[in-house]
Amino acid sequence: MGKTIIVANQKGGVGKTTTVVNLSAYIAEAGEKTLVIDLDAQGNSCSGLGVEKGENEHGLYEALLGMIDAREIVVETEVKNLFVIPSNIDLSGAQVEMVDMEKREFKLKSVVDRVKGDYDYVLIDSPPSLGLLTINGLVASDAVMIPIQCEYYALEGLSQLLKTINLVKQRLNPKLQIEGVLLTMYDTRTNLSKQVVEEVISYFKNKVYKTIIPRNIKLAEAPSFGKPISVYDPNSMGAISYYNLSKEIMKNGEKSVREGT
């Protein structure tokens, strides 16, 4: 049974999509069958993996509303072992349509439960909000990865996110854990980046990944070519960092299996 990890932070521009795209590619390349679920109506995870928005007739929206079987909308990417459930612009209206539905927080869970047995890892890219779609993502997941950028106001809004995670854990998904905190956009030239790292480590302790993702031009360029960094420029600093992160994640996964958690 695959492990489901949602990458979440209601702040935009912290590296959620970059992380989902590149981490999933490295995990898949390591031989683990991996599924990306694009829970953001902008569909950037899809395009970052070379799956064009609007290319598919149906997407996550239809699966959430029970109009189509989730397995029918899984799309193969160019990376071996890597698959995606695409989103489309219709997804932006799903929150409104789901409001009056029974068990509205569990719609994505029913989608994930349908497919997760086919994969070793399921990674969910969440929208930049703490709305109903993100709540659905938290309910459907085993763990949350929180990317935090090494910039001003890095920790702003974080207490709200942690409060939401705790509420979901208490009321909707008791098994939900914080998988880890990922520091992104680290700039070796600034004292600010170093200060943010110290601040985040003092707050989250051993939950912070050893791997830190640097600010890297190649990482920024890769999505416009529809390629993960492992394909676009495997020798760049960004690529090496995400490769190292994938090793950390898989090692954590093995540890969890051994400990039975």
Keywords:
seven-stranded mixed sheet; 261 residues; alpha/beta; 11 helices; Rossmann fold; single chain; globular
Report on the architecture of this protein.
The protein has one domain (3-245): P-loop containing nucleotide triphosphate hydrolases (Rossmann fold, 3-Layer(aba) Sandwich), CATH 3.40.50. The chain is globular and about 50 Å long. The chain has a seven-stranded mixed beta sheet, with helices on both faces. By secondary structure, it is of the alpha/beta class. It has helices at 16-29, 44-48, 60-64, 91-98, 107-115, 132-140, 158-171, 191-204, 217-221, 229-232, 237-259; strands at 3-7, 34-38, 75-76, 82-85, 121-125, 143-149, 177-184. Helix 5 packs parallel to helix 6.
- Percent of residues in helices comes to 40-55%
Q: Please name the fourth-level CATH homologous superfamily.
A: P-loop containing nucleotide triphosphate hydrolases
Radius of gyration: 17 Å
Output the number of helix runs: 11
Bin the strand percentage.
5-15%
